[in-house]
Amino acid sequence: MTEITRLSHLIDGKPYASASTQWRDVINPATQEVLARVPMATAAEVELAVASAKQAFSSWRNSSLGSRMRIMLRLQQLVREHTPQLAELITREHGKTLPDAEGEVARGLEVIEHACAIPTLQLGEIAENAASGVEVYNLLQPLGVGAGITAFNFPVMLPCFMFPLALATGNCFVLKPSEQDPSSTLLLAELAQQAGLPPGVLNIIHGGPEVADALCDHPDIKALSFIGSTQVGTHIYRRASAAGKRVQAMMGAKNHCVVLPDANKEQAINHLIGSAFGAAGQRCMANSVLLLVGEAQSWLPEIVAKSKAMKVGPGTDRQVDVGPLVNPRALERVRRLIDSGEAQGARLLLDGRDCVVPGFERGNFIGPTIFSEVKPGMAVYDEEIFGPVLCVIGVDSLDEAIAFINANPNGNGTSIFTASGWAARKYQNEIDVGQVGINVPIPVPVAYFSFTGSRASKLGDLGPNGKQALSFWTQSKTVTARWYEPGQGSSRVNTTIAL
């Protein structure tokens, strides 16, 4: 019998064997094989990780921009070289297909590459002779110790949304990855150590809600970044904010895709079903609601036929389109929501509940599922399903589509497929959603632009990546200075506010 690996924390630059009595199995979702065991950190271990980061900050904050840049340059090269290993770990523990996992690593790599430009990103401002003999300048300085809490669905990309820019700006970091698929995150952190990070600058601790709460409460953590569900994110935001921290929380979504009849039909259908069913729908940016406008409603049979032809199976098979859900609980939840859709009057056009993959009968598989005649108030519309389920709604006009989407409380992402520049411009201006794709199915911007979900999908005014992340991980300090020639200066007291 193969011995199951017991994962470690990463504290003070080296693996740290946990003394916890609580461990969780890491499961292959395609087979239910136990791959590893991950510890739920003790309170003392959380304290040790934060203390390590705090101690490292005193010297790391004074390291040169050039030295931090060179570490990021080495890290991006190491990540590039280890992409196959990272992708394999993602697929084994998450279930997404290998090509999708490789794409995830590439999107995370974008952020590291952006962090390599830190000498030109972390520039202040100066005004000479702002008043007579006075100069005013602004500094962007690190906060101290930052923390991150990430969801299971992108175990490499989401940590990259957090720690590279946090470290490049001079902060130290404590990261709690998802306990469901932590191995690729650990490998990413180990590559960061190989790139030259000093001990304590980046620490990894595993755990569940108790560890998350400890990070929210810890007085030495100055800022916290969260990506995950709305329920957990709201709790994290309120608790960490009450403890005086700067917080960003990117949360749940219900993303809509609009297809106009002038769109390129084949491209639109390929893109929309890829967005809805890729990663088995386990993306916060999945377009899980399709609005077909006018004559585009006649495309629905082709959409169903093409979705039905998608191959379901283990992510290690490069011919597979849809892998398993992450765990049996997710499988049961998606099944329950599909049941509710039928019970509440939606029309089930494609049913993936009875999906069986030969040789992987114990896997958490659900095939592409499509409902039509969906209405607000139905659970399949109101809830974020996080499974391969597409809800289709027919509307008569673009105005009707915009009004329908703007009535939904979420504002994470949306896409429109059209050949009309006028329609696209109208849509981007009138839609109340933070990230818009025009003939792009998953509108996650490149890393030097910020992730800008809005409304119920986001708490905090600064998102990950781009300029907003730079502002989030730094504090602004303004200095007003006047230097006198020795022996010179004012000969009387001046009680005015003027410079």
Automatic annotation (TrEMBL):
CDD domains: ALDH_F6_MMSDH. It comes from the Bacteria. Residues 20-479 form the Aldehyde dehydrogenase domain. GO terms for molecular function: methylmalonate-semialdehyde dehydrogenase (acylating, NAD) activity. Its EC number is 1.2.1.27. InterPro entries: Ald_DH/histidinol_DH, Ald_DH_C, Ald_DH_CS_CYS, Ald_DH_N, Aldehyde_DH_dom, MeMal-semiAld_DH. GO terms for biological process: L-valine catabolic process; thymine catabolic process. Pfam families: Aldedh (PF00171). Keywords: NAD, Oxidoreductase. PANTHER family: MALONATE-SEMIALDEHYDE DEHYDROGENASE, METHYLMALONATE-SEMIALDEHYDE DEHYDROGENASE [ACYLATING], MITOCHONDRIAL. Belongs to the aldehyde dehydrogenase family. NCBIfam families: MMSDH (TIGR01722). This is methylmalonate-semialdehyde dehydrogenase (CoA acylating). It comes from Roseateles oligotrophus.
